[in-house]
Design brief:
The chain has 2 domains: 120 residues; 65 residues. The protein is elongated, with a radius of gyration of 40 Å. The chain has a two-stranded parallel sheet. The chain has a two-stranded antiparallel sheet with strand order 3-4. It has 6 helices and 4 strands. It has 207 residues and is α+β, with helices and mostly antiparallel strands.
């Protein structure tokens, strides 16, 4: 592990940060001829002797993945005995491999550790102030973000109000338009006028 540290340190970018993640548990149902949880515990003890605040190389951050998985499993009384005497299928459903829930837990934990260092300048030394100045010129303050959001919201509300007014005006015009009525006539005989026909108003038709 010491040799691994020296190799990684030599390949690390200037002012880079190393983060070591502890090995995750081995459930008791796993094939003991391959590995047991006692092996993991021993490996993690050696890692803590080298890395972390109390280690030989305190510049290396120590991400305790082992402890995170154990704590998550022991919150359920049914798996409070994990990893000593019982499995935790919610987190590990295939031997030492993790379930989707376990994968998400580890992914979030690893991302939480990496995120603070991911935005650091790629090159250290003389370029760092220039990069920080460049980033500062384009950094949006909170009040600017709020102002842009407010302007967008007001524009959206104005558009909605315009659509409502237009729709009501159009409906009012339709309601005010009177229906066209056509009168039809039919000729009927007049019994008092020797059979002569008169024009009388007939049925009305709506157009």
């Amino acid at each position: 592990m010491e040799a691994m540290y020296r190799k990684l340190r030599g390949a690390l970018a200037p002012n880079g940060t190393m983060i070591f993640g502890t090995t995750t548990p081995v459930p008791p149902s796993y094939d003991s001829s391959k590995r047991v949880n006692a092996d993991v515990l021993e490996l993690n003890v050696r890692a803590r002797a080298l890395f972390g605040p109390a280690g030989k190389h305190p510049d290396v951050r120590l991400n305790d993945l082992y402890g995170r998985v154990v704590d998550a499993c022991r919150r359920d009384p049914a798996t409070a005995c994990y990893p000593e005497t019982c499995d935790c299928p919610l987190m590990q459903n295939n031997g030492v491999h993790f379930s989707p829930a376990g994968q998400r837990l580890n992914a979030v934990d690893v991302a939480w550790w990496i995120a603070p260092f991911a935005g650091a300048p790629a090159d250290a030394g003389e370029r760092a102030p220039e990069i920080e100045k460049h980033n500062g010129e384009y950094r949006l303050e909170h009040w600017k973000v709020a102002l842009v959001a407010q302007a967008f919201l007001l524009s959206a509300l104005g558009l909605v109000a315009t659509c409502v007014v237009y729709g009501r005006a159009r409906a009012r015009r339709r309601g005010d338009a009177a229906p066209m009525v056509a009168m039809t006539t039919r000729r009927v005989p007049d019994p008092e006028d020797d059979g002569r026909a008169l024009d009388r108003a007939g049925d009305t038709e709506m157009l």
